[in-house]
Every structure is written in C-alpha cells, then in structure tokens.
Write a structure and sequence with these properties.
single chain, 322 residues, alpha/beta, TIM Barrel, 8 strands
C-alpha cells in the first residue's frame, strides 16, 4: 500500500455543464483555496506521490489553476487535467505555459447525441482542444471515452481516429448504481444510457474489437484485463477492490475511500495537514472503512489501471512515450 504514487483530486464539485450521467456536483462540499492546494502538493510530495490528475466538476472554473500547475512543477509532480474543454483558447494558452504536463478531454462521441446536449458539446470541444494543445506541445494528450448504450457502435472507429491523430484513449464503461451512498448514485440518472443485459453479446464483440485494436498498436491506455472483463463487469458495475490503489482526494481535501465513497475517512484525514504518520494511519484504516460500507461494486478503469501499475511498478502516465 505504501507504493501508491498516483493521486486523483476533485479540484471542485462545481461544473458549468449538466451531463446526463455525471452526478458529482455537490454544493455542500466546500472547495479548498489555492494556498490549501499548494500545501497539499507539499504533503503529496512527502508521501511519494509522483503523478496527479486534476478533475472535477470542472477544474478550469478555478481561475488560479495555472498557479497550481506552476507549483506542481516546483514539486516535481507531473500533473494532468481532465476537463470538459468549454474554456477559451486564451485559457488553454495559459495552462500550457504554466506547466500543464497532460490533458484529458471528454470525447464520448463525434456524432451528435441529441439525447444530451451537454455531452455532445463537451465531446466536440474536447476533440478540438486536444488538437489545439497538440500544437502547443503538451507531452500527454488523451481522450476520456465513457462507453454507454448510445455510443457503443461508434467506439472502434472513434479510438482508431483519435489514435491516428496521436491521442491516447482512456476507456471507461458508464457507472450506474442504486446505492444512495455512492458519489455517482442518483435515481434521476437517465436510464437510457445504461447498457442492458440483452446487449451483452454486443459488448463482448466490442471487447474483442478493442483488444485487437490495442494489439495492433492503437493507443488505448487501459490494461488488457479491463477490456477483457468489460462483458463481465461493464454492465453490472460489480467489480470489487480489496486494497487502496490510488489516493483519491475530494475538493475539500478529504481523503476518500475511492471514487464512490467518502466515508468517515474524509472527515478524519485531510491532504492539507497530512503527515507521513497520518498517511500511514489512513492506509491502515482503509481496510476497516472498506469493510463497513455496503458496496455493490464499480468498474472504473482508473482503478484497474492503478492496480495494474502497482503490480508492474509503473507510474500512472507511463503508457506515454514522453
């Protein structure tokens, strides 16, 4: 557990879009300040964190994000940002000049998914922003593709196109649950997105196609084990973790159990005042907290990829040649 080198942080729970399958926006969770996050980077460096992926909400809503990126350079921590790409080219220029090491854009489809205007907008903007930042020389550029019922047919052609233009592709099946304690749980989620049981054969075919594409050199970043098990776990989202795989930090600095659960750990341990001794205690208490929740599973590619990285002693962004 002490070998964890990657952290993913919700910089904010605020967002300027309302996509049909994302329910992370929570006004009751108060965001940290820039000073808090610079302290957080100090503490992450002390406990051995080497890579950070900043997500949200929408992280570019924080106007001081460039200052945080500059600070990450000082700490020697490679930092990537995952965004809905609804910001201006001027903002992109500022991010690029501030030490942005990697950029992940949400690109679920290049077709017009009329069911969700926000999802279509961020996909079009995301593709354009990847191309813009490519010209700026950002070392790692990747598309986050959420696989759901409406884009399954398009995914093979989409990853072919993105890879051909030099972008990595991070794939993740749509996350859904009826567990009210999960961060992504919401009974109002658009059920039309979900992949039904009767599509399992189609899902199996998609899995086989993606594995073949990866073997041919297409820049799919997720490990083979994730692709192989999509037909097993990708519909029910019932994969179960047994160990902490990455450091997940909420926008108030609380250390979360995982993507889905804050638990009492987030109230007890905060990245702003985290010491190596406190971190050791957090890791020791992680298993107890894990046993206390009623978890029906998930299938986050970031967790399976983190597990694969730990197993092979790799860093989070090591699939990049940069």
């Amino acid at each position: 557990m002490s070998k964890i080198t990657e952290a993913q942080i919700y910089l904010t729970r605020d967002c300027n879009l309302k996509c049909g399958y994302c329910k992370l926006v929570k006004s009751e969770i108060k965001d940290l300040s820039l000073q808090d996050w610079t302290d957080a980077y100090d503490n992450m460096a002390r406990i051995g964190i080497k890579t950070v992926k900043i997500l949200g909400g929408e992280p570019t809503l924080k106007k001081w994000l460039p200052a945080l990126l500059r600070y990450s350079l000082k700490k020697g921590i490679k930092t990537a940002v995952l965004s809905n790409s609804t910001f201006s080219d001027k903002t992109a220029d500022t991010l690029a000049e501030s030490g942005l090491w990697g950029y992940f854009a949400s690109v679920d489809s290049l077709e017009d998914l009329k069911i969700d205007i926000s999802t279509s907008r961020k996909s079009r903007n995301g593709y354009g922003m990847l191309r813009y930042l490519q010209r700026k020389g950002i070392p790692l550029l990747a598309a986050n593709v959420v696989i759901h019922r409406f884009n399954m047919h398009e995914v093979p052609d989409l990853v072919n196109r993105l890879s051909g233009e030099g972008f990595y592709i991070n794939l993740c099946t749509i996350q859904h649950t009826t567990n009210p304690n999960k961060e992504f749980s919401d009974s109002n989620m658009n059920q039309d997105y979900l992949i039904p049981d009767n599509k399992k054969n189609d899902f199996t075919l998609l899995s086989e196609q993606l594995l073949k594409l990866k073997s041919l050199g297409i820049k799919i970043s997720v490990p083979d084990i994730y692709l192989k098990n999509m037909p097993v776990y990708g519909i029910k989202n019932n994969w179960q973790c047994t160990n902490p795989l990455q450091l997940r930090i909420d926008s108030d600095g609380g250390l979360m159990l995982c993507n889905e659960f804050r638990t009492e750990l987030a109230d007890k341990y905060n990245i702003v005042d985290l010491t190596p001794d406190k971190y050791k205690s957090f890791l020791e208490e992680w298993e107890t907290a894990r046993e206390s929740i009623n978890c029906d599973g998930c299938y986050w590619s970031s967790f399976i990829q983190a597990e694969d990285n730990l197993k092979h002693n790799r860093l989070e962004f090591q699939y990049s040649n940069s």
